[in-house]
Design brief:
It is a single chain. With 145 residues, this protein is α/β, with parallel strands linked by helices. The protein has eight helices and five strands, in the order αββαααβαβαβαα. Helix 7 (122-134) crosses helix 8 (136-142). The mean pLDDT is 96.
Length: 145
């Protein structure tokens, strides 16, 4: 597992330790993490603070060029909202820790030219499966079921 996915995993673990959903993300530009985030829907009583959104928020307001040169790492396949943010800001590549427990809008992203790299890391799968098994109502709330 590379350094950036390790950082995203640490964010997911941080979210879990706070009583939240274990999904983490980092935004990388020129080989440096410029934004970190984890799902904070439970912790902040937020409808939108998914890990990817939190990482973008943490990065702050950036020039459009920076987004177009960045890579988003996320431990779980991005949902419609987070995929929309990737498209809105023109992020050209998303590295996904796993898409077995949830497959987001990968087809949409690919159809719009976003390069996807799906790692299907066992650590990511196990973390999500354990969380879903122990917290089905929180998971269903988060993905809108």
């Amino acid at each position: 597992m590379d350094t950036f996915m390790q950082a995203a995993m640490k964010e997911a673990e941080k979210g879990l330790s706070e009583g939240g959903i274990p999904i983490g993300s980092v935004l990388v530009h020129s080989g440096k993490i410029i934004g970190r985030g984890h799902n904070k829907r439970i912790q902040k009583h937020s409808a939108i603070l998914h890990a990817e959104m939190d990482a973008l928020e943490d990065a702050g307001r950036l020039e459009a060029k920076i987004y177009r040169e960045s890579v988003l790492y996320t431990t779980l396949s991005p949902c419609s909202m987070c995929s929309g943010a990737v498209l809105l800001y023109g992020i050209p590549k998303v590295v996904i820790g796993e898409n077995r427990t949830f497959k987001g809008e990968e087809e949409l992203l690919s159809s719009r030219g976003v390069k996807l790299e799906v790692l299907n890391l066992q650590e990511c799968v196990e973390m999500m499966q354990a969380f879903i098994s122990e917290n089905p109502s929180l998971w269903n709330e988060d993905i809108g079921k």
